[in-house]
Each structure stands twice: as structure tokens, then as C-alpha cells.
Design goal:
116 residues, mainly alpha, two-stranded antiparallel ribbon, 5 helices, 49% helix
Length: 116
């Protein structure tokens, strides 16, 4: 559940970074917790950090670069913003093709429309 929420927030906000301070962890390894009572607090904390890192590290984002070496996350909004002269072609292509902006093969096909 938490990972789905993190993924959705990052996608909606077009985030290129995620900060998990984990400073809210005050009672990790509490003796009254049925799951973690008696376990080493450092090991529990390290396990959570590792789990979060492993999830975020497998996420792939694609970026567009312009002629001024500015880079933008590859999103529908940014494609339209960076290719205003291709608006008609983009609209036609996107109406007939379901483009997943997180899939490399979909973006390669979209680039073919943009370069013509």
C-alpha cells in the first residue's frame, strides 16, 4: 500500500527525487509490538531503509533533453511543451496509441512521430 502511494505521488508530481527522512520512527522495536518486540532496533531500521531503497531503485524514469541541455521527465505534458509544432501529430498519435510514459518501447515509437 505504501509503495503504491509513493509511486502515485511521484508520478503525479513528476518527481525526480524522493526524500524519505524516516525521522518519524520513534518507537521502532517497541517491546509491546507483537511483530518486533525483542528485535534489534538498528536491524529493524536498516531493513526498512533497504526495503524502501530496493523499491525506489527499480523505478525507471525517462527524460527528454533540449538543445540547451535542459532535461525534462518524459511526460505527456512535457512532450507537448517541448514539441509545440508537433501538437497536431501528437494528438492524432495519442488518440490511436495507448502510450505508457514509463515504457521504453512506447517512448521510442513516440519519438519516431516527433522526429519526422
Amino acid at each position: 500500500m505504501v509503495f503504491e502511494l509513493i509511486d502515485e505521488i511521484c508520478n503525479v508530481l513528476e518527481a525526480n527525487a524522493f526524500h524519505a527522512g524516516l525521522d518519524e520512527v520513534f518507537i521502532i522495536g517497541d517491546n509491546q509490538c507483537p511483530r518486533c518486540a525483542g528485535k534489534d532496533k538498528a536491524t529493524l531500521f536498516a531493513g526498512e531503509v533497504t526495503t524502501l531503497y530496493n523499491h525506489l531503485a527499480k523505478q525507471t524514469s525517462f527524460y527528454l533533453g533540449d538543445k540547451y541541455n535542459n532535461f525534462f521527465r518524459y511526460t505527456k505534458k512535457n512532450v507537448f511543451k517541448n514539441f509545440p509544432k508537433k501538437e497536431k501529430e501528437l494528438n492524432e498519435y495519442l488518440k490511436t496509441n495507448n502510450v505508457n510514459f514509463d515504457k521504453e518501447e512506447d517512448l521510442v515509437r513516440l519519438l519516431a512521430v516527433l522526429k519526422d
